Amino acid sequence: MRNRPGGWALRALSLVLLVFAAQLGSLIAPAYACGCGAMVVDRDAQVSVDRETSVVGWDGSTEQIVVRLTVRGDAPAAAWIMPVPHRATVELGDASLFSELHTLTAPVTTARHYFWPRAKDWPFGGSGDGSGDGAAAPAGAAPVEVVGRERLGPFDVARLAATDPAALEGWLKENGFELPDRLATALRPYVEQKWEYVAVRLAPRESGRPLSGTLDPLRLRFASDRLVYPMRLSRLAATPQSLGLYVLAAHRMEPRGAIGGRPPEVTYAGRVDPGRKQSAYPALGALTGGKPVFVTAIDQTFPRPELIGGDHELRAASADTPYRITRYRDELLTVGGFPAWVLTLLGGAGVVVAALLLVLRARRRRPVAPPPPVTVPSPLR
Predict the structure, then answer these.
(1) Which residues contact 119 (CB under 8 A, 6 or more apart)?
(2) What would the pLDDT profile of 197-213 be if each residue is shown by its tens digit?
(3) Given 3-state DSSP classes, what are the helix, strand and coil percentages for the chain, each rounded to the nearest 5?
(4) Does the pTM of the predicted model rise above 0.85?
(5) What does residue 321 show for φ and ψ, rounded to 5 degrees?
(6) Is there a contact between 70 and 212 (Cβ–Cβ < 8 Å)?
(7) Is 73 left (phi over 0), alpha (psi -120 to 50) or beta?
(8) In this structure, are residues 323 and 105 in contact, taking their beta carbons and an 8 Å threshold?
(9) Of 14, 80, 267, 291, which sees the most CB atoms within 10 A?
(10) Does the CA dihedral 9-26-258-267 come out positive or negative?
């Protein structure tokens, strides 16, 4: 059967409209997940986490997480939910900690020289310059128990012990939010493991303005016999996710697995003593109690967040091998501002000329040997 004229155009237009509708839906949908927790906003509002940076420390029995979020959107407030394996204490973190760690772990740049000129060098071009305690709620306890609540700067922090994911919905409703069905399902494994939650109501400093910008960091501390970083809720994200961790421990640390993302990449590893006099890292020293610590910086991407299958559990690496990214800046080798290759050629030419002069001079001074004597044979008798 022959297609009607213009039928292919109508089908193409329909396909374009469907793709546009899907993209529009992803733009207006509220964000339910970020790297180490879940973000919940009003149904008619939206907020996105542009960047999340976390510092994770562990001394063998106590874990602490300092997290800083940079958000944008039109929501006047949001709720951030963080699952923790044991009862947590919460306080404001020091924002300068992140600046210190960024400086400490930044790649170093070093010059790498080459001898022969390249396309941008002379004579081809250019000038030659180079370019709390147990968390289990007792039997018969209320589904959600508020074990602590405090106001920290712009944050209203509630520490909850929940025995039913749906019970968290009550607290959220009291604070003007609605628990999405997908998030309630994603929280169930944490409830089965008898984890608790830290629920934080985020609001801008100035009333009436949308929640946007870099928020003050929060510092959580809880008992833990292993170093774990909650990641399971990130599987709710609709867009690819990235994870940046600064891990502070006695040894170099590494994730046990990729948990559904690309292989984790160590971008820095090294031992630091922030407690010494005139240290450049006072905030790091305050966090570690002035004790030396091994810092491991880890980056990882999750192109398909729905494949995330659990939380990151970190373990000591086989060796405390230091590592730092080195970026090379290629420069033409010079001596006293002159290209080394030019000086080498001139020097070589000078040596050749000098050798020729010596040869000529030696030839001029060489004495001329007298001719051999001429003997005349005597006549026969």
Answers:
(1) 125
(2) 888 888 776 776 777 77
(3) 25, 35, 40
(4) no
(5) -75, 120
(6) no
(7) left
(8) no
(9) 80
(10) positive
